């Protein structure tokens, strides 16, 4: 009797203990979540570096202490249910591990939430070191420059709006979700113009940021007006650019793309976006606007500038301020987007690195070792038939990568010819005992082109492989199992332009994502596509959610257009395998067309 009562009491006590443990756990989780939310709130303040108020500190500290106390209570109340070791040494180890994890999380959270440095705080000024004569000359020349830049910026804004509207109409009419290379070039050309004007305006802002150090009141007013006019013009142009492209993912991605040829670093649009909406920059601009409204009547009475110059500056500043506010963006939204973008970038880097390693392994893995069908002797025989600008399709059997690429033809390259071919096309010329070029993209890459290939032969092919966009010898590139050569129906001048474009991509990394929307990394067929697009036209196909151009589609384009008025390519030759002999022979156009329908797993 007593035993049964005692047992029932123990059951009741145990159930109460479990229920109490659940409540403790729920309270601990609630405190931890509240502490995290408040901590995130501290990180998302407008002035991140300002000292938190005592109320903010206690509001975060109390739930944090509650979660720690709840954890300790739960630890001791769950002995029967906890499977982790509960020794003293484990407890001593557990606490520093938790602190270390919290430190890492806090360090990373601080890194991704740190606002970009303010341009206003970084720029130096040397106005105090100038004599009155030097200062007047500086202000006079900068005012003339500001007028010219402002007119150019206004014209650029109009051109940019027209270009954006024109591209959008084409995308809608052609049902495209990607830019053609010539559209990219037009967009980048205007972006480069904006960056040049931005640099000029930033220099003026830097020069006149120290206007307060000028002792003469009239000279100080002139310095302020020129510097503030440059700053508001820059703000207005930046915000109008942001307004046009911030919600256009295709254009924004293109403007963020690094381009060595244009001198554009990666992430430039996002950098401009963040600076134009930087809380410190906006705060300083508002302070200067208030200073301008207060002091302008005084400067007007003192006639610090001629009437025409003063009216121009007044109209320019007030117009820019109006347009700035019309294109303002919610700072909290900008801050959140910046944090999210940084987290995505940090996640993307290791994922892309892993993807690259796997792709390289797949591309280098050959399931069966045997001599390639096409010999160097055959390559030497067909080389005289090649012309600069020819498109090469290649296939090597038994490579694991063939299983992941659509169609029978997995690789494409471009035959650019030897140095004499480049001279005939007008791309290079002799300068004494050396070769040079009048075009920077050719001249900068001539040393790499003129070096011997790793097989000791001259370079005459450009292609994108896992190492990136490289020059290669035709004996290395065509040493395969199947090779087809197609020749564009273009003039020598057009082929020279295509080769010039191909040279401009040399040195870029391989694109393991096969993303034709960007040109900072290139896959093999993208090199051919970007070299010839606008001179030839290849329709991109959508594979796994992305527009791309498999090598087999180049062959299918020839097949569809052969014998029609739209034909862009001529058949030159096809080296096809001889079944059972382990060799190749040159065959006809009909066999080549049929090869495009062969399965990708076709192996011998």
Q: Decide which structural class fits the backbone.
A: alpha+beta
| Beta-strand fraction estimate | 5-15%
CATH C-level class of the largest domain is Alpha Beta
Number of helices: 21
Number of folding domains? 3
Query: Largest beta sheet, briefly?
Result: 7 strands, antiparallel
Q: Roughly how many Å apart are the termini? A: 86 Å
Q: Which spans have pLDDT < 50 for at least 5 consecutive residues? A: 1-14
Strand order of the largest sheet: 6-5-2-1-7-10-11
**Mass-distribution shape:** globular
CATH topology of the largest domain: endopeptidase fold (from Nostoc punctiforme)
Oligomer: single chain
Give the mean pLDDT.
Answer: 82
CATH superfamily of the largest domain: endopeptidase domain like (from Nostoc punctiforme)
Short description:
The protein has helices at residues 2-43, 54-77, 88-113, 119-122, 132-174, 181-208, 217-245, 249-255, 268-276, 279-302, 307-326, 331-364, 376-382, 419-424, 440-443, 446-450, 474-477, 492-504, 524-532, 551-561, 589-595, and strands at residues 391-395, 411-415, 429-431, 434-436, 461-465, 468-472, 482-488, 541-543, 546-548, 569-578, 583-587. The protein is an alpha+beta fold and 604 residues long.
């Amino acid at each position: 009797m007593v035993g049964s009562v005692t047992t029932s009491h123990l059951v009741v006590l145990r159930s109460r203990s479990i229920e109490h443990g659940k409540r403790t756990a729920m309270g601990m989780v609630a405190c931890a979540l509240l502490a995290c939310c408040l901590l995130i709130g501290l990180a998302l303040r407008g002035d991140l570096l300002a000292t938190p108020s005592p109320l903010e500190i206690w509001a975060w500290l109390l739930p944090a202490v509650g979660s720690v106390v709840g954890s300790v209570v739960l630890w001791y109340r769950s002995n029967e249910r906890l499977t982790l070791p509960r020794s003293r040494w484990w407890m001593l180890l557990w606490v520093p591990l938790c602190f270390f994890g919290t430190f890492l999380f806090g360090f990373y959270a601080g890194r991704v939430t740190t606002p970009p440095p303010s341009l206003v705080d970084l720029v130096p000024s040397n106005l105090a070191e100038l004599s009155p004569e030097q200062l007047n000359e500086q202000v006079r020349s900068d005012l003339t420059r500001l007028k010219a830049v402002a007119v150019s910026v206004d014209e650029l804004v109009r051109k940019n709006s027209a270009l954006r509207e024109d591209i959008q109409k084409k995308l809608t009419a052609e049902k495209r979700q990607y830019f053609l290379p010539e559209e990219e070039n037009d967009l980048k050309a205007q972006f480069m113009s904006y960056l040049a004007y931005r640099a000029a305006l930033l220099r003026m802002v830097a020069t006149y940021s120290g206007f307060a150090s000028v002792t003469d009141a009239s000279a100080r007013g002139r310095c302020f007006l020129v510097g503030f006019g440059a700053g508001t013009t820059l703000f207005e142009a930046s915000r109008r650019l942001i307004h046009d492209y911030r919600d256009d993912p295709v254009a924004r991605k293109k403007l963020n793309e690094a381009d060595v040829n244009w001198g554009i670093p990666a992430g430039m649009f996002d950098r401009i976006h963040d600076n134009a909406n930087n809380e410190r920059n906006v705060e300083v601009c508002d302070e200067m606007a208030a200073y301008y409204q207060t002091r302008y009547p005084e400067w007007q009475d003192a006639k610090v500038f001629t009437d025409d110059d003063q009216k121009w500056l007044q109209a320019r500043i007030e117009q820019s301020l109006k347009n700035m506010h019309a294109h303002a963006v919610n700072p909290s939204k900008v801050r959140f987007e910046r944090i999210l973008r940084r987290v995505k970038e940090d996640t993307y880097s290791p994922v892309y690195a892993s993807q690259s390693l796997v792709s390289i392994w797949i591309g280098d893995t050959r399931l069966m070792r045997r001599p390639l069908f096409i010999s160097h002797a055959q390559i030497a025989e067909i080389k005289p038939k090649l012309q600069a600008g020819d498109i090469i399709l290649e296939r090597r059997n038994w490579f694991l990568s063939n299983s992941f690429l659509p169609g029978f033809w997995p690789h494409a390259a471009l035959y650019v010819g030897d140095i004499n071919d480049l001279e005939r096309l007008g791309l290079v010329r002799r300068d004494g005992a050396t070769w040079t070029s009048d075009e920077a993209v050719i001249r900068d890459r001539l040393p790499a082109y003129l070096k011997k290939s790793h097989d000791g032969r001259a370079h005459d092919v450009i292609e994108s492989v896992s190492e990136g966009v490289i020059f290669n010898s035709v004996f290395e590139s065509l040493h395969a199992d199947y090779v087809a050569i197609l020749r564009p129906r273009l003039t020598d001048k057009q082929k020279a332009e295509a080769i010039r474009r191909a040279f401009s991509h040399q040195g870029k990394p391989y694109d393991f994502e096969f993303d034709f929307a960007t040109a900072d990394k290139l896959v093999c067929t993208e090199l051919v596509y970007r070299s010839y697009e606008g001179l030839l036209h290849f329709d991109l196909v959508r594979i796994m959610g992305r527009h791309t151009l498999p090598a087999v589609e180049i062959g299918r384009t020839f097949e569809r257009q052969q014998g029609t008025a739209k034909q862009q390519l001529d058949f030159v030759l096809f080296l096809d395998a001889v079944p059972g002999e382990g060799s190749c022979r040159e065959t006809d156009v009909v066999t080549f067309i049929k090869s495009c329908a062969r399965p990708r797993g076709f192996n011998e």
